[in-house]
Amino acid sequence: MPTEAEHLAQSQLGDRALAARIAAGDHAAFELLMRRYNRRLYRLARAALRDEADAKDALQDAYLRAFRSIGQFRGEAALATWLSRLVLNECSARLRRSSRRENIIPIVRAGAGMDRVCAAADSGRSPDQLTAREQIRQVLEQKVSELPEALRVVFVLRSIEELSVEETAATLSIAAETVRTRHFRAKGMLRELLAREIDLAQGDIFEFGGPACDQLTASVLARLA
User: Fold this and answer.
1) CA 203 to CA 44: how far, in whole Å?
2) Which of 54, 61, 155, 159 could form a disulfide with 186 if both were Cys (CB 3.0 to 4.6 A apart)?
3) In a domain, 213, yes or no
4) What pTM value is reported for the model?
5) Do 98 and 38 contact (CB within 8 A), yes or no?
6) Tens of pLDDT along 112-136?
7) For residue 174, how far is the Cα from the chain centroid?
8) CA 157, 163, 165 angle in degrees (round to 5)?
9) Is residue 76 situated within a structural domain?
10) Containing domain of residue 89, as a range?
C-alpha cells in the first residue's frame, strides 16, 4: 500500500503547492520535500563543511528551520535554491562558531556566505570492481575536500549536481562569471591533486613482493630441485 508521501510524489507537486502544504502542517509533503532534495543539499553541506557528521547535522537543522519558515517562501526563486541558501546559512553559522572556538579564521569563505536519498545499487559489477570503485570514490572525495571552500562548493554544484551556471549563481548569490571562474580553477586544482596522487602511486603498480614473491621463488627452486 503506497504511503501518503508516495502518493504526493506521484502527483508531482510544484514548488509553491508543495510549500503551501508544508506550511499547513502536512508532514507527508515535508517528507516528499526531503526525499526530493536530500542528495543535493547533503552534497552542498558536505562541500561547505568537509565533515560527514557535521554535514548531516547541519542539514537536519536547516530542514527544521525550513519547516518553521516555509510560509515565507513566495516562489521568487526555485524551492531548491531557497533550501540551498538555508543550508549554506547553517553551514556558515557552524563555521563561525567553530572559528570562535578554535580562534582560527577560515582562509576562504563561500561567496554567499536528494532529488532522491539513495541512488540505485550498482548491478552487474563484480565485488572487485565495486571495491575498486569505492576506493576511487574515497580518493576523489578526499581531493575535493582539499579544495578551498569557495571553489569546492561551486565544483560540487556544477560538476556533481550538474546545476547550470545560472542555477549555481542564484544558489550562491554570486555572479555567473564568478561561477565560471571558480569552476575552472576548481577543476584545474583537482587535476593537479589527482595527478600528484597518481605520481606517488605509480611506483606501486603491479607490486610483487612479500608472500607472492616468496611463493614464486620457492616454487622455482622446488622445480629446479
Assistant:
1) 35
2) 155
3) no
4) 0.69
5) no
6) 333 333 344 455 677 877 887 888 8
7) 20
8) 95
9) yes
10) 4-119+127-204
C-alpha cell at 56: 548531516
- 214 lies in some domain: no
Domain membership flag for residue 111: yes
- Of 141, 159, 144, 137, which Cα lies nearest the Cα of 189? 144
The total number of structural domains that make up the chain: 1
139-187 pLDDT, tens digit each = 888 899 999 999 999 999 999 998 999 999 999 999 999 999 999 999 9
Q: CATH number of the domain that 38 lies in?
A: 1.10.1740.10
Residue that has been written with the C-alpha cell 563561500 in this structure: 110
